[in-house]
Design brief:
- Keywords: Oxidoreductase.
- It is a single chain.
- It contains five helices and four strands.
- Strands 2-1-3-4 form a four-stranded mixed beta sheet, with helices on both faces.
- By secondary structure, it is α+β, with helices and mostly antiparallel strands.
- The chain folds into two domains: 1-32 and 91-113, Glutaredoxin (3-Layer(aba) Sandwich); 36-89, no CATH class.
- The longest helix has 12 residues, at 11-22.
- The N and C termini lie close together (10 Å).
Length: 113
């Protein structure tokens, strides 16, 4: 079964869920804003996405701009920021077994599922 890190206030995230529903895919919604991922879970997610920590950050979010932008941060510091401020995590993320994709592009998502 697919898992989707979902933010209900995000249009791209809602579009992803609608796409998966129309494609008759079974999925579990992970409400990562209410239940933030631990640093270990973020590291595991990064491996599944095959991304470095900075590539997972929503760099236009106010929290990032005010607290982290233009600072020289280690991967560990970025992961810690993502854990402490889950709003910074790109969304939606669709997880299938040991792989994951940021599901903003529905064509890529269709190929992934």
């Amino acid at each position: 079964m697919l898992q989707v890190l979902h933010n209900p206030r995000c249009g791209k995230s809602r579009n992803c869920l609608a796409f998966l529903t129309e494609a008759n895919q079974d999925f579990e919604i992970i409400s990562y804003l209410q239940n933030p991922l631990s640093e270990a879970e973020i590291k595991e997610l990064l491996q599944k996405l095959d991304l470095n920590p900075l590539e997972l950050v929503r760099q236009k979010e106010t929290i990032w701009i005010e607290n982290y932008k233009n600072k020289s941060l280690t991967d560990h510091e970025i992961i810690k920021a993502l854990s402490e401020h889950p709003i910074l995590i790109e969304r939606p993320i669709v997880i299938k077994n040991n792989e994951a994709i940021i599901g903003r592009d529905l064509e890529k998502l269709q190929k992934f599922i």
